[in-house]
Specification:
single chain, Rossmann fold, 2 domains, five-stranded parallel beta sheet, globular
């Protein structure tokens, strides 16, 4: 089967890791996954404008509703004109296919009218709408986690001579609230943690590409507090360097924006972090962590009460928690591999 993915792809954020591995496992399984757009020299992705030969078109929406590497509306006309509606799928990675939601300073749409229009657009593209959550809010949405796990990512859990105590890799988009919670837990034990590194954009200033809009709460941060704690800020890295960067710390927090927490959405970091040579520190609710990672993973949840004690225990007993991580990795490899994801996606297309 030949699937054409439609996505606004970047090497340093979003679902680049997933797009790359879907294409890889598709080749191994006798299928093809192409990313819609003109071929790009030096890109890690297999771009193609050949829609007519596609067996299915999969719209993967995250942080935009536009196609920036083609002819805009003409692209949508070409995509829906060449592939029948029953062979089209929408994957809503950001929870936008919902009524307008505001939670914890986060939101999926600025107002109810914007939400209504976007739902209509998705409905015009496909009958099959999926979200990467086990519990969609709308009855016509199918749960499909989309993001996956690759056992080849796994790095040995070694904790002697680490450069950093904590490393987080990811851009700041409604994530300051979650980051501040971790840093407040670190603050009383700051000297025990060692170096702290954050790799990504938007933590000290608004990135250039957002200067045209009012990012507001989406990129709220506190550069003064970061300097006070001695947090080191590093530029974004390509998707294939994310796991090695996380592994430079003893632990790496798993952060979600408030909207994603409320909707129970998973992201690429949900699956990448346990593979790094660092201990994942889960900052989600216990029920979510247990459902995705298994009951043993609850031991790696950052508690609401005395969170600094948990971080100290990670630093004191990394070998113990490494055993917990091995169990998590086994579970993810068994249930969330890209091969399983692709099989499930093909079932959605053919249903």
């Amino acid at each position: 089967m030949r699937l054409v993915f439609v996505n606004w792809a970047y090497d340093t954020h979003g679902s680049a890791q997933d797009l790359y591995h879907y294409a890889r496992v598709a080749r191994e399984m006798g299928h093809e996954v192409a990313l819609y757009g003109p071929p790009a020299r030096g890109s890690a992705f297999n771009y193609s404008l050949e829609v007519g030969a596609a067996d299915a078109v999969v719209f993967i929406f995250e942080f935009t509703t536009y196609i920036d590497r083609g002819d805009g509306r003409l692209d949508y006309a070409r995509l829906v004109g060449k592939v029948p509606r029953r062979r089209r799928v929408v994957i809503d990675c950001d929870g936008a296919y919902n009524d307008a939601i505001r939670v914890g300073g986060d939101y999926n749409h600025p107002d109810a009218e914007s939400a209504r229009r976007w739902v209509e657009i998705c409905d015009s593209l496909a009958d099959k709408v999926c979200q990467p959550t086990l519990h969609p809010k709308r009855p016509n949405v199918r749960p499909f986690l989309f993001h996956g796990y690759e056992p080849a990512w796994e790095r040995p859990p070694e904790f002697v001579g680490k450069e950093f105590g904590m490393v987080y890799v990811g851009n700041n988009w409604f994530r300051w609230r979650a980051m501040e919670r971790v840093l407040r837990a670190v603050e009383p034990i700051r000297e025990r943690v060692g170096r702290i590194g954050i790799v990504g954009e938007g933590w000290d200033a608004l990135p250039e590409r957002y200067h045209w809009q009012q990012a507001g709460a989406a990129q709220h941060t506190d550069p003064g507090y970061l300097r006070e704690l001695g947090v080191e800020l590093w530029s974004p890295v390509r998707f294939d360097r994310v796991i090695d960067w996380m592994g430079r710390g003893v632990f790496s927090p798993v952060l979600l924006r408030p909207l994603f927490d409320w909707l129970g959405l998973v992201t690429c970091r949900t699956f990448e972090t346990p593979a790094a040579g660092a201990l994942p520190l889960f900052c989600q609710e216990v029920g979510f962590v247990e459902e995705v990672y298994g009951a043993a993973a609850v031991e790696l949840v950052l508690p609401r009460e005395r969170p600094g004690d948990k971080i100290l225990d990670l630093l004191r007993r990394p070998g113990h928690y490494a055993g917990v991580v091995r169990g998590i990795r086994n579970r993810l490899a068994e249930r969330h591999s890209y091969r399983d994801r692709l099989r499930e996606l093909i079932e959605v297309v053919e249903s």
